[in-house]
Design goal:
Low-confidence stretches: none
Number of strands: 2
Strand order of the largest sheet: 1-2
Number of helices: 11
Distance between the termini: 20 Å
Strand content: under 5%
Structural class: mainly alpha
Largest sheet: 2 strands, antiparallel
Radius of gyration: 19 Å
């Protein structure tokens, strides 16, 4: 009997998240790394300082990931067990909550021990900030901001698209997010070529970012503060998706995020999020990780409900 899509997603995504919790990311042979190498090869063949070439690059890479997921899903469709196993494997491959928590906590431990240099050495594993430009409080703030943003990018967004599109949705979202990290930044090489990847990432990340903000409000310690920070400050952030996520986390945790930061020597002065909060301290890293975990679990439940509603709508 063909698998029921909503149950396949619910059971498979739960198993995939459990696998991520128990195993984390493999140190070698990660599927996302393999995709990155393939995307790099396509880039070398197609690169020109032109938006059209970048759009082709995005279409080839994302389309290839979606097609691979669709083919695999079609092959296993007659078997419920195989369908759940495929969804679990795809979920495990694309989510990164455990690695996110592990990196954040390692930096938090270094800060708690007063070893700022060790924290600076670990920070590039989590985000692209210039660690030498940050003191202990600045590192802690960068980690909390990264935990917030990556909760959306590495967990919730993937579950949203998995609920909507099954395995192709899971793989497609991770492909979009990975391409944005590779070519979506505004360097001289990628300002035009990476434009399509950056815009597609904004579109794909939109629903997950809003769901993350809602769930952070529900799961955090200060729902009223989270709503206030989201409403007042999210639109000030230069990223349409990071703004709601970081603002809601800031309000839920009662801390200030944003402000001056440095990327590879380039200084940016961003608006402060939740100005009424206090400065971030090292112990807020653990609080952010725990909030991220709660948001991920709630997102799994929301995704299962959404998948069921989508199936009912299609069969009505």
């Amino acid at each position: 009997m063909p698998a029921c899509p909503d149950r396949v997603f619910a059971y498979g995504a739960a198993a995939g998240l459990l696998g991520d919790l128990l195993l984390g990311d493999p140190r070698r042979g990660h599927p996302v790394a393999a995709f990155g190498r393939a995307a790099g090869a396509v880039e070398r063949a197609l690169w020109r300082d032109h938006r059209g070439r970048g759009a082709v690059h995005t279409a080839v890479c994302v389309g290839g990931a979606v097609a691979l997921g669709a083919l695999a899903q079609r092959v296993v469709r007659p078997s419920r067990t195989a369908s759940v196993a495929l969804t679990a494997a795809a979920t495990w491959a694309v989510v990164g909550g455990t690695s996110l928590a592990r990196e954040a906590r390692s930096i938090g431990r270094a800060l708690d021990e007063g070893d700022v240099e060790a924290a600076r050495e670990r920070l590039p594993h989590l985000c692209g900030r210039d660690p030498q430009a940050l003191d202990a409080d600045g590192i802690a703030r960068a980690v909390v901001e990264s935990v917030a943003e990556n909760t959306s990018d590495a967990v919730v967004g993937a579950l949203v698209w998995g609920a909507v599109g099954g395995v192709p949705g899971l793989l497609g979202f991770r492909a979009v997010n990975t391409l944005d990290a590779m070519v979506g930044h505004r360097s001289a090489r990628y300002r035009r070529f990476g434009w399509a990847s950056a815009r597609l990432d904004d579109l794909a990340g939109w629903p997950g970012a809003r769901l993350t903000a809602v769930l952070a409000t529900v799961a955090g310690g200060d729902p009223r503060g989270a709503v206030r920070a989201w409403r007042e400050d999210a639109g000030k952030h230069p990223s349409p998706n990071a703004g709601p996520v970081e603002a809601s986390f800031a309000g839920a945790l009662g801390v200030r995020l944003g402000g001056t930061l440095s990327y590879a020597g380039r200084v940016e002065h961003r608006p402060v999020l939740n100005r009424e909060g206090r400065a971030v301290a090292s112990y807020d890293i653990e609080r952010a990780v725990r909030l991220s975990r709660r948001v991920g679990l709630l997102a799994l439940g929301a995704g299962a409900v959404a998948a069921r509603l989508i199936r009912k709508g299609r069969t009505a």
